[in-house]
Write the C-alpha coordinates for this entry.
Amino acid sequence: MQSLFIYNTLTRKKEEFKAINPPFAGLYVCGPTVYSDVHLGNCRTFISFDLIYRYLLHLGYKVRYVRNITDAGHLEGDRDEGDDKFAKKAKLEQLEPMEIVQKYTVGFRDIMREFNTLPPSIEPTATGHICEQIEMVKEIIKNGLAYEINGNVYFDVEKYSKGFNYGQLTNRKLEELLEGTRELGGQDEKRGRLDFALWIKAKSETIMRWPSPWGWGFPGWHIECSAMSRKYLGDTFDIHGGGMDLQATHHTNEIAQSQACYHKTPVNYWMHTNMLTVNGVRMSKSAGNGFLPGELFTGNHPLLEKGYAPMAVRFFMLQTHYRSTLDFSNEALQASEKGFERLMEAYKTLQSLKASANSSENIAAIQSKCYEAMNDDFNTSILIAHLFDAVRIINSANDGKLNLTQADIDLLKILYNDFVFDVLGLKAESGNERLDTALQKVMDLMLEIRSKAKTGKDFKLSDEIRDKLIAAGIQIKDTKEGTTWKV
RNA sequence: GGUCCUGUGGCCGAGUGGCUAGGCUCAGCUCUGCAAAAGCUGCUACAGCGGUUCGAAUCCGCUCGGGACCUCCA
Protein backbone atom coordinates (compact mmCIF):
# COMPACT_ATOMS: atom_id res chain seq x y z
CA MET A 1 0.00 0.00 0.00
CA GLN A 2 1.24 3.51 -0.80
CA SER A 3 2.37 5.67 2.05
CA LEU A 4 -0.14 8.39 2.60
CA PHE A 5 0.57 11.54 4.56
CA ILE A 6 -2.21 13.29 6.40
CA TYR A 7 -2.11 16.63 8.13
CA ASN A 8 -3.10 15.92 11.71
CA THR A 9 -4.65 18.84 13.55
CA LEU A 10 -3.66 17.24 16.82
CA THR A 11 0.06 17.49 16.10
CA ARG A 12 -0.11 20.26 13.49
CA LYS A 13 2.08 18.16 11.22
CA LYS A 14 1.77 15.92 8.22
CA GLU A 15 2.07 12.37 9.44
CA GLU A 16 2.21 9.07 7.64
CA PHE A 17 -1.14 7.37 7.93
CA LYS A 18 -0.94 4.14 9.90
CA ALA A 19 -4.28 2.44 10.27
CA ILE A 20 -4.93 0.77 13.61
CA ASN A 21 -6.04 -2.45 12.01
CA PRO A 22 -5.19 -2.45 8.31
CA PRO A 23 -6.61 -2.94 5.79
CA PHE A 24 -9.54 -1.60 7.77
CA ALA A 25 -9.86 2.09 8.41
CA GLY A 26 -12.40 3.99 10.46
CA LEU A 27 -13.54 7.43 9.40
CA TYR A 28 -16.01 9.56 11.33
CA VAL A 29 -17.25 12.88 10.01
CA CYS A 30 -19.59 15.28 11.78
CA GLY A 31 -22.63 15.47 9.57
CA PRO A 32 -25.31 18.09 9.16
CA THR A 33 -27.81 19.37 11.66
CA VAL A 34 -30.99 18.79 9.76
CA TYR A 35 -33.19 21.67 10.77
CA SER A 36 -32.68 23.67 7.54
CA ASP A 37 -31.31 23.32 4.03
CA VAL A 38 -27.60 22.64 3.72
CA HIS A 39 -25.77 25.48 2.09
CA LEU A 40 -22.79 25.26 -0.19
CA GLY A 41 -20.30 25.69 2.64
CA ASN A 42 -21.65 22.59 4.33
CA CYS A 43 -21.42 20.77 1.03
CA ARG A 44 -17.77 21.64 0.66
CA THR A 45 -16.91 19.77 3.84
CA PHE A 46 -18.79 16.67 2.77
CA ILE A 47 -17.31 16.78 -0.71
CA SER A 48 -13.84 17.08 0.82
CA PHE A 49 -14.41 14.03 2.98
CA ASP A 50 -15.97 12.19 0.09
CA LEU A 51 -12.68 12.69 -1.72
CA ILE A 52 -10.77 11.42 1.31
CA TYR A 53 -13.08 8.42 1.60
CA ARG A 54 -12.73 7.68 -2.09
CA TYR A 55 -8.95 7.89 -2.01
CA LEU A 56 -8.70 5.60 1.00
CA LEU A 57 -10.91 3.12 -0.85
CA HIS A 58 -8.80 3.48 -3.95
CA LEU A 59 -5.67 2.69 -1.97
CA GLY A 60 -7.32 -0.54 -0.89
CA TYR A 61 -8.51 0.32 2.60
CA LYS A 62 -11.73 -1.25 3.77
CA VAL A 63 -13.21 1.92 5.15
CA ARG A 64 -16.10 2.19 7.54
CA TYR A 65 -17.26 5.72 6.95
CA VAL A 66 -19.63 7.01 9.62
CA ARG A 67 -21.32 10.36 9.14
CA ASN A 68 -23.97 11.27 11.65
CA ILE A 69 -27.21 13.11 11.23
CA THR A 70 -27.78 15.52 14.09
CA ASP A 71 -31.51 15.45 14.65
CA ALA A 72 -31.65 16.55 18.27
CA GLY A 73 -29.65 18.33 20.87
CA HIS A 74 -28.68 21.50 19.10
CA LEU A 75 -29.72 24.58 20.95
CA GLU A 76 -30.69 27.82 19.36
CA GLY A 77 -28.87 30.90 20.60
CA ASP A 78 -26.35 31.45 23.26
CA ARG A 79 -24.98 29.00 25.77
CA ASP A 80 -27.12 26.18 26.99
CA GLU A 81 -30.35 28.04 27.00
CA GLY A 82 -33.13 28.57 24.57
CA ASP A 83 -35.13 26.18 22.48
CA ASP A 84 -34.01 23.14 20.63
CA LYS A 85 -33.38 24.14 17.01
CA PHE A 86 -35.74 21.49 15.75
CA ALA A 87 -38.51 22.50 18.07
CA LYS A 88 -38.15 26.11 17.06
CA LYS A 89 -38.19 25.32 13.37
CA ALA A 90 -41.11 22.99 13.87
CA LYS A 91 -43.14 25.75 15.44
CA LEU A 92 -42.21 28.04 12.61
CA GLU A 93 -43.24 25.61 9.91
CA GLN A 94 -46.07 24.14 11.94
CA LEU A 95 -44.69 20.65 11.72
CA GLU A 96 -43.67 17.94 14.10
CA PRO A 97 -39.97 18.10 14.95
CA MET A 98 -39.48 14.74 13.29
CA GLU A 99 -41.13 16.06 10.16
CA ILE A 100 -38.50 18.77 10.10
CA VAL A 101 -35.82 16.14 10.53
CA GLN A 102 -37.23 14.01 7.74
CA LYS A 103 -37.68 16.91 5.36
CA TYR A 104 -34.14 18.19 5.65
CA THR A 105 -32.54 14.75 5.85
CA VAL A 106 -34.12 13.83 2.55
CA GLY A 107 -33.06 17.17 1.08
CA PHE A 108 -29.52 16.68 2.28
CA ARG A 109 -29.25 13.22 0.74
CA ASP A 110 -30.63 14.48 -2.55
CA ILE A 111 -28.01 17.18 -2.70
CA MET A 112 -25.24 14.80 -1.78
CA ARG A 113 -26.33 12.52 -4.60
CA GLU A 114 -26.27 15.44 -7.03
CA PHE A 115 -22.70 16.11 -6.04
CA ASN A 116 -21.93 12.44 -6.66
CA THR A 117 -20.75 11.78 -3.12
CA LEU A 118 -20.73 8.16 -2.02
CA PRO A 119 -23.12 7.35 0.77
CA PRO A 120 -21.39 6.70 4.08
CA SER A 121 -21.29 3.17 5.46
CA ILE A 122 -23.44 4.22 8.39
CA GLU A 123 -25.48 7.37 8.93
CA PRO A 124 -26.50 7.20 12.57
CA THR A 125 -28.84 9.70 14.15
CA ALA A 126 -28.58 11.33 17.55
CA THR A 127 -32.14 10.38 18.46
CA GLY A 128 -31.40 6.77 17.63
CA HIS A 129 -28.58 6.68 20.15
CA ILE A 130 -30.02 8.28 23.27
CA CYS A 131 -29.25 5.19 25.37
CA GLU A 132 -25.60 5.17 24.39
CA GLN A 133 -25.34 8.86 25.19
CA ILE A 134 -26.95 8.45 28.58
CA GLU A 135 -24.60 5.58 29.37
CA MET A 136 -21.63 7.74 28.53
CA VAL A 137 -22.87 10.61 30.66
CA LYS A 138 -23.42 8.22 33.56
CA GLU A 139 -19.88 6.97 33.20
CA ILE A 140 -18.42 10.47 33.12
CA ILE A 141 -20.35 11.37 36.27
CA LYS A 142 -19.08 8.18 37.91
CA ASN A 143 -15.55 9.20 37.01
CA GLY A 144 -16.13 12.49 38.77
CA LEU A 145 -15.81 14.71 35.74
CA ALA A 146 -19.43 15.73 35.35
CA TYR A 147 -22.07 16.91 37.78
CA GLU A 148 -25.82 17.25 37.85
CA ILE A 149 -27.72 20.36 38.86
CA ASN A 150 -31.50 20.57 38.62
CA GLY A 151 -31.79 17.92 35.93
CA ASN A 152 -28.94 19.32 33.84
CA VAL A 153 -25.61 17.57 33.59
CA TYR A 154 -22.45 19.53 32.92
CA PHE A 155 -18.93 18.52 32.07
CA ASP A 156 -16.39 19.84 34.58
CA VAL A 157 -13.69 21.26 32.34
CA GLU A 158 -11.43 22.66 35.02
CA LYS A 159 -11.35 19.41 36.94
CA TYR A 160 -10.70 17.51 33.71
CA SER A 161 -7.81 19.84 32.95
CA LYS A 162 -5.97 18.70 36.04
CA GLY A 163 -5.39 15.34 34.40
CA PHE A 164 -5.71 16.08 30.70
CA ASN A 165 -4.82 18.75 28.19
CA TYR A 166 -8.23 20.16 27.37
CA GLY A 167 -7.09 22.65 24.72
CA GLN A 168 -4.71 20.33 22.87
CA LEU A 169 -6.63 20.34 19.61
CA THR A 170 -6.36 24.10 19.26
CA ASN A 171 -3.01 24.33 21.03
CA ARG A 172 -4.36 26.49 23.82
CA LYS A 173 -3.88 26.55 27.53
CA LEU A 174 -6.75 26.50 29.97
CA GLU A 175 -5.90 29.94 31.31
CA GLU A 176 -6.08 31.39 27.82
CA LEU A 177 -9.39 29.75 27.25
CA LEU A 178 -10.73 31.05 30.50
CA GLU A 179 -9.64 34.57 29.64
CA GLY A 180 -11.46 34.43 26.37
CA THR A 181 -14.70 33.34 27.96
CA ARG A 182 -17.46 35.64 28.98
CA GLU A 183 -18.39 36.31 32.53
CA LEU A 184 -20.85 33.92 34.02
CA GLY A 185 -24.36 35.23 34.11
CA GLY A 186 -25.97 35.56 37.51
CA GLN A 187 -28.48 32.79 36.88
CA ASP A 188 -25.91 30.42 35.43
CA GLU A 189 -25.78 27.25 37.43
CA LYS A 190 -22.57 25.87 35.94
CA ARG A 191 -19.55 25.66 38.17
CA GLY A 192 -17.01 26.71 35.59
CA ARG A 193 -17.16 29.07 32.66
CA LEU A 194 -15.99 26.46 30.21
CA ASP A 195 -18.30 23.72 31.42
CA PHE A 196 -20.64 22.45 28.75
CA ALA A 197 -23.91 20.54 28.88
CA LEU A 198 -23.99 16.77 28.51
CA TRP A 199 -27.68 16.50 29.29
CA ILE A 200 -30.29 19.23 29.27
CA LYS A 201 -33.49 19.21 31.28
CA ALA A 202 -36.66 19.43 29.24
CA LYS A 203 -38.87 22.43 29.74
CA SER A 204 -42.59 21.94 29.96
CA GLU A 205 -43.01 22.81 26.28
CA THR A 206 -40.12 20.69 25.01
CA ILE A 207 -41.44 18.09 22.59
CA MET A 208 -38.31 16.07 21.91
CA ARG A 209 -37.53 14.58 25.31
CA TRP A 210 -36.31 11.33 26.71
CA PRO A 211 -36.25 9.84 30.21
CA SER A 212 -32.90 9.70 31.95
CA PRO A 213 -31.50 9.20 35.42
CA TRP A 214 -31.69 13.00 35.75
CA GLY A 215 -35.29 13.28 34.63
CA TRP A 216 -36.81 14.09 31.25
CA GLY A 217 -34.50 15.87 28.90
CA PHE A 218 -32.35 15.67 25.82
CA PRO A 219 -28.63 15.23 25.15
CA GLY A 220 -26.12 18.01 24.71
CA TRP A 221 -24.71 18.52 21.28
CA HIS A 222 -21.23 17.10 21.72
CA ILE A 223 -22.03 13.79 23.37
CA GLU A 224 -23.76 12.31 20.33
CA CYS A 225 -20.60 12.16 18.24
CA SER A 226 -18.61 10.63 21.07
CA ALA A 227 -21.24 7.98 21.66
CA MET A 228 -21.84 7.10 18.03
CA SER A 229 -18.22 7.09 16.91
CA ARG A 230 -17.35 4.83 19.83
CA LYS A 231 -20.23 2.50 19.09
CA TYR A 232 -19.40 1.98 15.42
CA LEU A 233 -15.65 2.55 15.28
CA GLY A 234 -14.39 1.63 18.72
CA ASP A 235 -12.75 3.41 21.64
CA THR A 236 -9.94 4.68 19.46
CA PHE A 237 -10.30 4.93 15.72
CA ASP A 238 -8.31 6.23 12.78
CA ILE A 239 -9.70 9.47 11.39
CA HIS A 240 -12.18 11.99 12.68
CA GLY A 241 -13.08 14.89 10.46
CA GLY A 242 -15.24 17.92 10.24
CA GLY A 243 -15.20 21.59 9.39
CA MET A 244 -12.64 23.81 11.02
CA ASP A 245 -15.36 25.63 12.86
CA LEU A 246 -15.95 22.51 14.93
CA GLN A 247 -12.37 22.20 16.07
CA ALA A 248 -12.32 24.58 19.02
CA THR A 249 -15.56 23.58 20.66
CA HIS A 250 -17.19 20.44 19.37
CA HIS A 251 -14.13 18.33 18.74
CA THR A 252 -12.30 19.61 21.79
CA ASN A 253 -15.25 18.50 23.87
CA GLU A 254 -15.47 15.16 22.11
CA ILE A 255 -11.91 14.35 23.11
CA ALA A 256 -12.64 15.41 26.68
CA GLN A 257 -15.79 13.29 26.88
CA SER A 258 -14.06 10.17 25.63
CA GLN A 259 -11.07 10.63 27.89
CA ALA A 260 -13.33 11.31 30.85
CA CYS A 261 -15.47 8.29 30.04
CA TYR A 262 -13.04 5.54 29.12
CA HIS A 263 -9.58 7.11 29.49
CA LYS A 264 -8.47 6.73 25.91
CA THR A 265 -7.77 9.21 23.19
CA PRO A 266 -10.64 8.61 20.77
CA VAL A 267 -8.90 9.53 17.52
CA ASN A 268 -5.46 9.16 15.96
CA TYR A 269 -5.83 11.62 13.09
CA TRP A 270 -7.98 14.73 13.30
CA MET A 271 -8.71 16.31 9.95
CA HIS A 272 -10.30 19.71 9.46
CA THR A 273 -11.53 21.17 6.24
CA ASN A 274 -11.49 24.87 5.62
CA MET A 275 -14.37 27.19 4.99
CA LEU A 276 -16.04 28.40 1.86
CA THR A 277 -16.10 32.18 1.78
CA VAL A 278 -18.05 34.79 -0.12
CA ASN A 279 -16.12 38.00 -0.70
CA GLY A 280 -13.62 36.78 1.83
CA VAL A 281 -16.18 36.18 4.57
CA ARG A 282 -17.18 32.77 5.73
CA MET A 283 -20.43 31.44 4.32
CA SER A 284 -22.73 30.62 7.20
CA LYS A 285 -26.34 30.38 8.09
CA SER A 286 -26.10 33.10 10.68
CA ALA A 287 -24.29 35.53 8.38
CA GLY A 288 -27.06 35.16 5.83
CA ASN A 289 -24.60 34.87 2.96
CA GLY A 290 -25.34 31.23 2.29
CA PHE A 291 -25.94 29.83 -1.14
CA LEU A 292 -28.19 26.85 -1.46
CA PRO A 293 -27.02 24.24 -3.93
CA GLY A 294 -30.34 24.52 -5.71
CA GLU A 295 -29.83 28.22 -6.29
CA LEU A 296 -26.45 27.49 -7.73
CA PHE A 297 -27.69 24.80 -10.09
CA THR A 298 -30.43 27.01 -11.45
CA GLY A 299 -28.57 30.32 -11.24
CA ASN A 300 -31.44 31.76 -9.26
CA HIS A 301 -29.42 34.06 -7.04
CA PRO A 302 -28.56 37.77 -7.26
CA LEU A 303 -24.83 37.12 -7.26
CA LEU A 304 -25.00 34.56 -10.06
CA GLU A 305 -25.08 35.23 -13.77
CA LYS A 306 -26.08 31.69 -14.64
CA GLY A 307 -26.55 28.22 -13.23
CA TYR A 308 -23.76 25.71 -12.80
CA ALA A 309 -23.94 21.95 -13.06
CA PRO A 310 -23.23 19.99 -9.86
CA MET A 311 -20.12 18.44 -11.37
CA ALA A 312 -18.71 21.82 -12.33
CA VAL A 313 -19.25 22.95 -8.75
CA ARG A 314 -17.61 19.82 -7.40
CA PHE A 315 -14.65 20.39 -9.69
CA PHE A 316 -14.51 24.01 -8.55
CA MET A 317 -14.21 22.87 -4.98
CA LEU A 318 -11.62 20.20 -5.68
CA GLN A 319 -9.34 22.63 -7.47
CA THR A 320 -8.51 24.09 -4.08
CA HIS A 321 -6.81 22.13 -1.34
CA TYR A 322 -9.20 21.13 1.42
CA ARG A 323 -7.28 23.03 4.10
CA SER A 324 -7.38 26.35 2.25
CA THR A 325 -10.26 28.72 2.29
CA LEU A 326 -12.06 28.80 -1.01
CA ASP A 327 -13.61 32.01 -2.20
CA PHE A 328 -16.84 31.72 -4.05
CA SER A 329 -17.40 33.94 -7.06
CA ASN A 330 -19.06 33.93 -10.42
CA GLU A 331 -15.74 34.31 -12.26
CA ALA A 332 -14.09 31.48 -10.36
CA LEU A 333 -17.03 29.20 -11.08
CA GLN A 334 -16.99 30.03 -14.76
CA ALA A 335 -13.28 29.30 -14.95
CA SER A 336 -13.83 25.95 -13.27
CA GLU A 337 -16.75 25.10 -15.49
CA LYS A 338 -14.64 25.59 -18.60
CA GLY A 339 -11.73 23.67 -17.17
CA PHE A 340 -14.03 20.83 -16.20
CA GLU A 341 -15.49 20.70 -19.68
CA ARG A 342 -12.04 20.56 -21.21
CA LEU A 343 -11.13 17.71 -18.91
CA MET A 344 -14.23 15.77 -19.91
CA GLU A 345 -13.90 16.55 -23.63
CA ALA A 346 -10.41 15.12 -23.59
CA TYR A 347 -11.83 11.90 -22.18
CA LYS A 348 -14.15 11.63 -25.16
CA THR A 349 -11.25 12.32 -27.48
CA LEU A 350 -9.25 9.64 -25.74
CA GLN A 351 -11.84 7.01 -26.70
CA SER A 352 -11.20 7.48 -30.40
CA LEU A 353 -7.46 8.05 -30.28
CA LYS A 354 -5.41 6.04 -32.76
CA ALA A 355 -2.31 4.30 -31.50
CA SER A 356 1.14 4.76 -32.99
CA ALA A 357 3.95 2.25 -33.10
CA ASN A 358 6.17 4.32 -30.88
CA SER A 359 5.67 6.70 -28.05
CA SER A 360 6.95 10.18 -27.38
CA GLU A 361 5.38 10.55 -23.97
CA ASN A 362 5.87 9.09 -20.51
CA ILE A 363 2.38 8.48 -19.18
CA ALA A 364 3.57 6.35 -16.29
CA ALA A 365 5.44 9.37 -14.96
CA ILE A 366 2.22 11.36 -14.89
CA GLN A 367 0.50 8.53 -13.10
CA SER A 368 3.09 8.38 -10.37
CA LYS A 369 2.95 12.16 -9.99
CA CYS A 370 -0.79 11.87 -9.48
CA TYR A 371 -0.24 9.41 -6.65
CA GLU A 372 2.46 11.63 -5.19
CA ALA A 373 0.08 14.55 -5.12
CA MET A 374 -2.70 12.61 -3.44
CA ASN A 375 -0.36 10.95 -0.98
CA ASP A 376 0.75 14.38 0.13
CA ASP A 377 -2.30 15.16 2.22
CA PHE A 378 -4.80 14.79 -0.63
CA ASN A 379 -3.41 17.60 -2.75
CA THR A 380 -6.08 17.81 -5.42
CA SER A 381 -4.76 21.09 -6.82
CA ILE A 382 -1.59 19.39 -7.91
CA LEU A 383 -3.39 16.24 -8.98
CA ILE A 384 -5.59 18.29 -11.29
CA ALA A 385 -2.58 20.13 -12.70
CA HIS A 386 -1.10 16.76 -13.68
CA LEU A 387 -4.37 15.65 -15.17
CA PHE A 388 -4.30 18.70 -17.40
CA ASP A 389 -0.90 17.56 -18.61
CA ALA A 390 -2.65 14.41 -19.72
CA VAL A 391 -5.34 16.52 -21.39
CA ARG A 392 -2.76 18.39 -23.40
CA ILE A 393 -1.12 15.12 -24.45
CA ILE A 394 -4.43 13.63 -25.51
CA ASN A 395 -5.36 16.68 -27.56
CA SER A 396 -1.94 16.91 -29.16
CA ALA A 397 -2.03 13.24 -30.04
CA ASN A 398 -5.43 13.81 -31.56
CA ASP A 399 -3.94 16.59 -33.67
CA GLY A 400 -1.20 14.21 -34.75
CA LYS A 401 1.43 16.33 -33.07
CA LEU A 402 2.75 13.57 -30.88
CA ASN A 403 2.61 9.79 -30.71
CA LEU A 404 1.04 7.44 -28.23
CA THR A 405 1.20 3.68 -28.23
CA GLN A 406 -1.80 1.54 -27.41
CA ALA A 407 -0.22 0.97 -24.00
CA ASP A 408 -0.07 4.73 -23.48
CA ILE A 409 -3.71 5.11 -24.44
CA ASP A 410 -4.72 2.30 -22.12
CA LEU A 411 -2.78 3.89 -19.30
CA LEU A 412 -4.43 7.23 -19.93
CA LYS A 413 -7.79 5.52 -19.66
CA ILE A 414 -6.72 4.01 -16.36
CA LEU A 415 -5.58 7.44 -15.23
CA TYR A 416 -9.00 8.88 -15.98
CA ASN A 417 -10.86 6.02 -14.38
CA ASP A 418 -8.73 6.07 -11.25
CA PHE A 419 -8.31 9.75 -10.63
CA VAL A 420 -11.02 11.66 -12.46
CA PHE A 421 -13.89 9.26 -11.87
CA ASP A 422 -13.00 7.14 -8.81
CA VAL A 423 -10.97 9.54 -6.69
CA LEU A 424 -12.20 12.99 -7.65
CA GLY A 425 -15.67 11.55 -8.07
CA LEU A 426 -16.40 13.48 -11.24
CA LYS A 427 -18.68 12.18 -13.95
CA ALA A 428 -19.94 13.33 -17.27
CA GLU A 429 -23.25 15.07 -16.90
CA SER A 430 -25.75 12.66 -18.28
CA GLY A 431 -29.24 13.59 -19.17
CA ASN A 432 -32.23 11.60 -20.13
CA GLU A 433 -31.18 8.71 -22.33
CA ARG A 434 -34.20 8.73 -24.62
CA LEU A 435 -33.89 12.46 -25.11
CA ASP A 436 -30.20 12.08 -25.82
CA THR A 437 -30.87 9.50 -28.51
CA ALA A 438 -33.54 11.65 -30.08
CA LEU A 439 -31.29 14.68 -29.99
CA GLN A 440 -28.52 12.70 -31.63
CA LYS A 441 -30.82 11.86 -34.53
CA VAL A 442 -31.99 15.43 -34.91
CA MET A 443 -28.41 16.63 -34.87
CA ASP A 444 -27.39 14.09 -37.48
CA LEU A 445 -30.12 15.50 -39.67
CA MET A 446 -29.16 19.12 -39.07
CA LEU A 447 -25.52 18.46 -39.78
CA GLU A 448 -26.40 16.59 -42.94
CA ILE A 449 -28.38 19.55 -44.22
CA ARG A 450 -25.58 21.90 -43.27
CA SER A 451 -23.02 19.68 -44.94
CA LYS A 452 -24.99 19.78 -48.18
CA ALA A 453 -25.19 23.54 -47.97
CA LYS A 454 -21.46 23.74 -47.48
CA THR A 455 -20.77 21.46 -50.41
CA GLY A 456 -22.93 23.75 -52.49
CA LYS A 457 -20.98 26.77 -51.12
CA ASP A 458 -24.16 28.04 -49.54
CA PHE A 459 -22.27 29.43 -46.54
CA LYS A 460 -25.10 31.73 -45.69
CA LEU A 461 -27.31 28.79 -44.84
CA SER A 462 -24.56 26.77 -43.19
CA ASP A 463 -23.60 29.69 -40.97
CA GLU A 464 -27.21 30.37 -40.14
CA ILE A 465 -27.62 26.78 -38.96
CA ARG A 466 -24.48 27.02 -36.90
CA ASP A 467 -25.41 30.36 -35.33
CA LYS A 468 -28.86 29.23 -34.43
CA LEU A 469 -27.52 26.03 -32.90
CA ILE A 470 -25.10 28.05 -30.82
CA ALA A 471 -28.01 30.21 -29.71
CA ALA A 472 -29.73 26.99 -28.66
CA GLY A 473 -26.69 26.00 -26.64
CA ILE A 474 -25.20 23.53 -29.08
CA GLN A 475 -21.71 24.08 -30.33
CA ILE A 476 -20.45 22.48 -33.49
CA LYS A 477 -16.98 22.14 -34.88
CA ASP A 478 -15.81 21.22 -38.32
CA THR A 479 -12.93 18.81 -38.54
CA LYS A 480 -11.36 16.89 -41.34
CA GLU A 481 -13.21 13.77 -40.28
CA GLY A 482 -16.53 15.55 -40.25
CA THR A 483 -18.52 17.77 -37.96
CA THR A 484 -18.96 17.10 -34.26
CA TRP A 485 -21.15 18.78 -31.72
CA LYS A 486 -21.61 19.16 -28.02
CA VAL A 487 -24.15 20.76 -25.76
C1' G B 1 -9.25 42.22 23.94
C1' G B 2 -6.91 37.07 23.58
C1' U B 3 -5.28 32.89 20.28
C1' C B 4 -4.22 31.56 15.45
C1' C B 5 -4.17 31.66 10.12
C1' U B 6 -3.32 34.44 5.82
C1' G B 7 -1.78 38.35 1.79
C1' U B 8 0.93 34.92 -5.05
C1' G B 9 0.39 37.53 -12.13
C1' G B 10 -6.29 40.48 -15.14
C1' C B 11 -9.22 36.48 -12.04
C1' C B 12 -9.13 31.62 -9.28
C1' G B 13 -5.59 28.94 -7.07
C1' A B 14 -0.62 25.21 -5.97
C1' G B 15 4.18 25.55 -4.27
C1' U B 16 9.75 23.87 -2.76
C1' G B 17 15.31 28.07 0.10
C1' G B 18 18.09 27.99 -6.03
C1' C B 19 15.28 24.36 -11.38
C1' U B 20 9.87 30.09 -11.12
C1' A B 21 2.21 24.36 -10.97
C1' G B 22 -2.46 24.26 -13.18
C1' G B 23 -7.28 26.38 -14.67
C1' C B 24 -9.77 30.72 -16.66
C1' U B 25 -9.19 35.49 -19.25
C1' C B 26 -6.62 38.54 -22.98
C1' A B 27 -3.31 39.07 -27.53
C1' G B 28 -0.71 36.74 -31.68
C1' C B 29 0.17 32.40 -34.72
C1' U B 30 -1.09 27.35 -36.94
C1' C B 31 -5.46 24.85 -38.86
C1' U B 32 -10.13 26.51 -41.29
C1' G B 33 -14.71 29.13 -46.63
C1' C B 34 -15.44 31.88 -41.97
C1' A B 35 -15.87 30.19 -37.09
C1' A B 36 -15.41 26.85 -33.13
C1' A B 37 -12.23 23.33 -31.00
C1' A B 38 -7.22 22.00 -30.39
C1' G B 39 -2.01 23.12 -30.30
C1' C B 40 1.94 26.73 -29.91
C1' U B 41 3.77 31.61 -28.25
C1' G B 42 3.31 35.95 -25.26
C1' C B 43 1.40 38.81 -20.78
C1' U B 44 6.34 35.82 -15.65
C1' A B 45 3.60 37.25 -9.99
C1' C B 46 4.76 36.48 -5.11
C1' A B 47 1.61 43.17 0.33
C1' G B 48 5.63 46.83 2.14
C1' C B 49 10.30 47.58 4.70
C1' G B 50 14.48 45.44 6.96
C1' G B 51 17.47 40.99 8.24
C1' U B 52 19.75 35.78 7.71
C1' U B 53 21.99 33.43 3.21
C1' C B 54 26.33 32.60 -2.26
C1' G B 55 20.96 32.68 -3.23
C1' A B 56 14.20 33.79 -0.46
C1' A B 57 7.73 34.40 -2.77
C1' U B 58 9.64 30.21 0.47
C1' C B 59 13.37 31.32 7.07
C1' C B 60 13.38 35.66 10.95
C1' G B 61 11.64 40.69 12.59
C1' C B 62 8.58 44.90 12.03
C1' U B 63 4.55 47.60 9.42
C1' C B 64 0.03 47.49 6.72
C1' G B 65 -4.24 44.68 4.86
C1' G B 66 -7.71 40.29 5.08
C1' G B 67 -9.85 36.30 7.76
C1' A B 68 -11.01 32.45 11.52
C1' C B 69 -11.82 30.94 16.48
C1' C B 70 -12.82 32.44 21.61
C1' U B 71 -20.77 32.25 21.18
C1' C B 72 -25.02 28.21 17.42
C1' C B 73 -22.58 27.08 12.64
C1' A B 74 -19.39 22.19 7.94
User: Anything to note?
Assistant: The two ends of chain A are 41 Å apart (CA to CA). The longest helix of chain A spans residues 433-455. Chain A has three domains: 5-273, 299-423, 433-486.
